[in-house]
Amino acid sequence: xxxxxxxxxxxxxPMGPQKGVLTIVPGEGDTFTGNIAGDLxxxxxxxxxxxxxxxxxxxxxxxxxxMDLDCTATVEGDALTGKVKAGMFGxxxxxxxxxx
Length: 100
What we know:
Blueprint: E1 5-13, E2 16-26, E3 31-38, E4 41-44, E5 46-51, E6 54-61, E7 67-76, E8 79-85, E9 91-98
Antiparallel strand pairs: 1-2, 1-9, 2-3, 3-4, 3-5, 5-6, 6-7, 7-8, 8-9
């Protein structure tokens, strides 16, 4: 099973649920690239790694304030569940469903 694809995601943030589309593009070996695009704009995935069906990556948020995000997610079938660590705001839940 591949983790590649686009996922309709919701992140439970202090500002309320934020919707976005997370795109995963596997690269060489155990790496991946992609981005998440939503109401607050788009963020590129940095340092994406794949271990089995578990993904880890970082993103740099610019809106509504600059912040580094550390993310992890597990893909099971067409479902994605994970966590986004957002500095002083703590850890937020991330859920998603593969498109198509």
